[in-house]
Amino acid sequence: MSSPNLHPMLNVAVKAARAAGAIINRAALDVEAVRISQKQVNDFVTEVDHASERAIIETLLTAYPGHGILAEESGTEHGAKDSDYVWIIDPLDGTTNFIHGFPVYCVSIALAVRGKIEQAVIYDPSRNDLFTATKGRGAFMNERRIRVSKRTRLNECLVSTGFPFRTGDNFKQYLAIMADLMPRMAGLRRPGAAALDLAYVAAGFTDGFFETGLNIWDVAAGSLLVTEAGGLIGNFTGEPEFLDQRECLAGAPRIYGQLVPLLAKYSKFAGLDDKLRASDRMRAVDPSAQGGDTYARSTIDATPAAAPETEPAADAAPAPRKLTRIRREVPVAPAEGDAAAK
Question: Is residue 130 a part of any domain in this protein?
Answer without folding.
Answer: yes
